[in-house]
Write a structure and sequence with these properties.
The protein has 393 residues and is α/β, with parallel strands linked by helices. The chain is built from 14 helices and 21 strands. An eight-stranded mixed beta sheet has the order 7-6-15-16-17-14-18-21. Strands 9-3-2-13-20-19 form a six-stranded mixed beta sheet, covered by helices on one side. A four-stranded mixed beta sheet has the order 1-12-11-10, with no helix packed on it. Helix 10 runs antiparallel to helix 12. The two termini are 40 Å apart.
């Protein structure tokens, strides 16, 4: 079978399906190809902190009804350290903005429902995906599905297929440059059907990092730093909860409601950037081009900003023949990416214990946290970065 469209998108996660939705609203046809099943994509447990620019963009695309009803607006995150001190970074005070807790899984559900309503062409469980002639005027994508080899021709291909996808691998090694940092620890995360804390709380402790977050009014998400050699079997609930409460400190722990975990997983932390984010008529977006440690809550938000820039570029191309935004996409997106990479690296380095860390290093971290607590200028700088910079014009 052979199809023709304007834009073929590889990957039906948040970046791919959001781009497809945005293109549809601009009158641009697209086809989405996804190697996993729909249920598998929806089953991924991911981030849930949205910058206000992301919130406003989802609203603009008509995707905000459930988010506004079930999401939780925060004025700023809190940081606890030393088992005693708690500092709230007042984003609204310093930046005039907020952020929202709303799970990525819920965004994905909203996107799939919107895709169903408009009859979007999404081919799930597509295997052996290959990209062809991406530097030509008419590239194509082939894949196997239901025992049949299929082909989609388009003007452009957008790779939203994640770190392990095929899109980035299509760019020749002579063109692609990558930057990577792997962190020597992971995050053990659990979901529990318990009322969450009112605020997102980060904790720095001599035993390691911890984080308290939320998905909805009766679903909490908690993390503790752990060695990469650990498995979830090493962390039964009766070990996890005491460790979490210790790291959060008594004043924060007093508000935590414990209960059985309903999901538990360990994720490694890494920083990764691929440059450029365009090769011929192939564009990279989301995790296919960049990964940040979740400490800065930037991964999903970067994917959304990539989509914003791409959708604007495609709209200008098809409406006016203007390729200014498409030609500048890689440079513009990478400016935002590297800003988020730097902030996420800084926050990760500040709040975690490293295996080779000395007593001096620990005291230096605590001194920097003390400085952050005492300096309105330092808090303003963190608030600006946590809230997310505006999209470029």
């Amino acid at each position: 079978m052979s199809l023709a469209t304007d834009v073929v998108i590889i990957g039906a996660g948040p970046a791919g399906t959001l781009l497809s939705h945005a293109l549809h609203q601009a009158g641009i046809a697209s086809v989405v190809v996804e190697r996993a099943s729909r249920d598998h994509v929806l089953g991924r447990v991911r981030a849930g902190v949205l910058e206000w620019g992301t919130v406003e963009y989802l609203r603009r695309l008509g995707l905000g009804e459930r988010m506004d009803r079930e999401g939780h607006v925060h004025g700023g995150p809190a940081i606890a350290w030393g088992g005693r001190d708690v500092l709230t970074i007042d984003i609204h005070k310093y930046v005039g903005s907020n952020f929202m807790s709303y799970g990525q899984t819920m965004i994905q559900e909203d996107l799939y429902l919107a895709a169903d309503r408009r009859g979007a062409e999404i081919f799930f469980e597509a295997s052996d995906v290959e990209l062809h002639d991406v530097t030509s005027a008419r590239p194509s994508v082939t894949f196997s599905r239901d025992g049949e080899r299929q082909r989609v021709e388009a003007d452009f291909v957008v790779g939203c297929d994640g770190f392990h996808g095929v899109s980035r691998l299509t760019v020749p090694a002579s063109v692609l440059r990558t930057y990577e940092k792997e962190y020597p620890f992971g995050w053990l995360g659990i979901l529990s059907e318990t009322p969450p804390l009112e605020d997102v709380v980060y904790a720095h402790h001599e035993r390691g990092f911890a984080l308290a977050s939320r998905r909805n009014p009766m679903l909490s998400r908690y993390y503790v730093q752990c060695p990469l050699t650990d498995s979830v079997d090493d962390w039964p609930d009766d070990r996890f909860w005491p460790e979490l409460l210790t790291r959060l400190g008594p004043s924060v722990a007093a508000g935590v409601v414990t209960g059985p975990s309903i999901e538990k997983s360990i994720a490694p932390l890494r920083s990764f950037v691929a440059e450029p984010m365009r090769y011929g008529n192939l564009f990279l977006a989301g995790d296919a081009a960049h990964i940040v440690p979740p400490t800065g809550a930037k991964g999903l938000n970067l994917a959304v900003s990539d989509v914003y820039y791409l959708a604007r570029g495609f709209a200008a191309h098809y409406a006016d023949g203007d390729d200014h935004y498409l030609d500048g996409y890689s440079d513009m997106a990478l400016r935002r990416v590297w800003g988020a990479v730097r902030f996420s690296w800084w926050l990760t380095t500040l709040l975690h214990r490293f295996p080779d860390q000395t007593d001096f290093d620990l005291r230096a971290q605590e001194a920097e946290l003390d400085y952050l607590a005492s300096s309105p200028n330092a808090q303003a700088a963190m608030a600006e970065q946590y809230a997310g910079l505006p999209f470029e014009d």
